[in-house]
Specification:
3-stranded antiparallel beta sheet; two-stranded antiparallel sheet; about 5% strand
C-alpha cells in the first residue's frame, strides 16, 4: 500500500473534523512561542488536600546510578540525566513522566526536578514538552508536593514551573487525538485545579470539565 493510499485511508477513518484538528494542532505548535512557558503568567498558591493514599505511578520505570530503564530498555543517561537523550519516543516519554521518583530519597527527587527545570527549557521540538508527557509529569510532581520535605525556596520554584507547564498543557491539549491522550490532559488539569488557587486555575478547571463532559460518555457506554 502506498503512503498516499495509507493517508487517504486514515483521513477517511477519522473524518473531516478530526483531520482539521490534526492540521490545526500541527500548525499552532509550529508557530507557538514556547519561550512564554519559561515563567508562569501568574502565581499559584498550593491548596492541595489528599484524602486518600496516592497510587504509585512508576509504570515499571527506574532511574539509578546514571541508568534509566523503561519499556524493556535500559540505557546510560548520566546523573543528572541527559534530558535531551535520544531514543525511541515512548522510552523518552517515560523519562519525562518522572514516574521513577517513587522510592527515591526526597533530596534526590528535588535535585532531579530542579535540574529538569534548569536544563530542559520549553521547546516545541522537545518530547518532554508534548502534552502527554506534560500530563503525567505534572501529576507526578504534584504527588511529591504533599511531602513535607518539598518545602522552602525549592518548593516555590517547583510551583512556578508547574504553573508554566500547566499553561502549556492547557494551550496544547490533544483535541486532535481524543481518547486516552485527551483524557490524560483533562484529568491532570482537573487535579491541578483541585490542588491550586490562582488566576489561571479557573481556566484549567473549565477546560478540563468541558473535555470530560464530552469524552466520558464515549468511554463509559450505557452497558
Amino acid at each position: 500500500m502506498s503512503r498516499l493510499t495509507r493517508y487517504a485511508a486514515a483521513l477517511h477513518h477519522i473524518g473531516p473534523r478530526q483531520t482539521a484538528l490534526h492540521l490545526w494542532h500541527r500548525l499552532r505548535r509550529r508557530v507557538r512561542r514556547f519561550g512564554a512557558y519559561t515563567r508562569a503568567s501568574g502565581e499559584v498558591e498550593w491548596a492541595g488536600r489528599a484524602r486518600v493514599p496516592w497510587l504509585p505511578q512508576t509504570g515499571g520505570a527506574w532511574l539509578r546510578d546514571g541508568r534509566f530503564s523503561a519499556v524493556g530498555r535500559t540505557r546510560d543517561v548520566g546523573d543528572p540525566p541527559r534530558w535531551d537523550v535520544e531514543g525511541p519516543l515512548l522510552w523518552v516519554f517515560n523519562l519525562h513522566y518522572f514516574g521513577f521518583l517513587e522510592g527515591l530519597p526526597p533530596d534526590h527527587q528535588i535535585r532531579l526536578v530542579l535540574d529538569w527545570i534548569d536544563r530542559y527549557p520549553p521547546s516545541a521540538r522537545r518530547p518532554g514538552w508534548m502534552p502527554y508527557p506534560l500530563s503525567l509529569r505534572l501529576r507526578s510532581w504534584v504527588r511529591r508536593l504533599f511531602d513535607e520535605e518539598w518545602g522552602g525556596a525549592h518548593r516555590r520554584r517547583v510551583l512556578a514551573s508547574i504553573a508554566a507547564q500547566a499553561s502549556c498543557l492547557a494551550d496544547t491539549a490533544e483535541h486532535h487525538l481524543r481518547g486516552n491522550h485527551l483524557l490524560e490532559n483533562a484529568i491532570t488539569l482537573r487535579l491541578l485545579a483541585a490542588c491550586f488557587r490562582g488566576p489561571a486555575v479557573g481556566r484549567w478547571r473549565r477546560l478540563a470539565d468541558r473535555i470530560l463532559d464530552r469524552e466520558l460518555p464515549e468511554q463509559f457506554l450505557p452497558d
